[in-house]
Amino acid sequence: MKRLLPIAGLCLAALIQACGDDQTRVPPQPVDGNTVPTMITDSVNSFVSDSGITRYHIVAPVWLMFDNADDPNWKFPDGLYLERFDDDMNVTATVVCDSALYLTRDKIWRLDGNVRMRNLDGDRFLTNRVYWNQNTHKVYNDTFIHIRRADRIIEGHGFISNEQMTDYTVRRPTGIFPTPNS
């Protein structure tokens, strides 16, 4: 019996070695960080804080993170709903769009397609593209903008605003119309 154990061990080792030789080893392939996301999240419902204070609520069907891209970014290809909060957790603004892109290094958001925003005063903004630069604290675009206030409707091409959307300028106004309630 003592002689069979070493022989059985040698047979087992040879069998394992033989099986290992039949395997094909595939070298790792480089991954393009511009086209392959580092993370995919679906059914997003997230709160984002800054310095321990909740500032944003984000809801999106899909969130793609491209942290290894040449210009790292997040994509929300199926739309985005965002709420912005003040220090007391009161909603100060809402944003809805068909798709969004966030450039993480530059801290710039680009919102595209049927962009609808509402500020604390109840003013509603409708456009097809908006940029939000978190470094300069400005929201802007150079396309058609429709703003509905309680007392009038303002339309134009291009605008610039503070982040709260309360102090804004329409660059090329095409019309200011009183609303039926005024």
Compose a concise summary of this entry.
With 182 residues, this protein is mainly beta.
Describe the main β-sheet briefly. 6 strands, antiparallel, barrel
* Approximate shape: elongated
Integer-rounded radius of gyration: 27 Å
Q: Tell me the number of helical segments per DSSP (H or I, 4 or more residues long).
A: 1
Structural class: mainly beta
The number of strands is 11
Order of helices and strands: HEEEEEEEEEEE
Strand order of the largest sheet: 2-3-6-7-5-4
Relative strand content: over 45%
Poorly predicted residue ranges = none
Q: What is the oligomeric state here? A: single chain
Helix content: under 10%
Rounded to the nearest angstrom, the distance between the terminal CA atoms is: 104 Å
Give the averaged pLDDT, no decimals: 87
Notes on the structure:
The protein is mainly beta and 182 residues long. It has one helix at residues 4-21; strands at residues 39-50, 53-66, 73-76, 80-85, 91-97, 99-103, 108-119, 124-133, 138-148, 152-162, 168-178. A 6-stranded antiparallel barrel has the order 2-3-6-7-5-4.
Layout: helices, strands, pairs:
Elements: H1 4-21, E1 39-50, E2 53-66, E3 73-76, E4 80-85, E5 91-97, E6 99-103, E7 108-119, E8 124-133, E9 138-148, E10 152-162, E11 168-178
Antiparallel strand pairs: 1-2, 2-3, 2-4, 3-6, 4-5, 5-7, 6-7, 7-8, 8-9, 9-10, 10-11
Please tag this protein with its features.
182 residues, mainly beta, 6-stranded antiparallel beta barrel, 1 helix
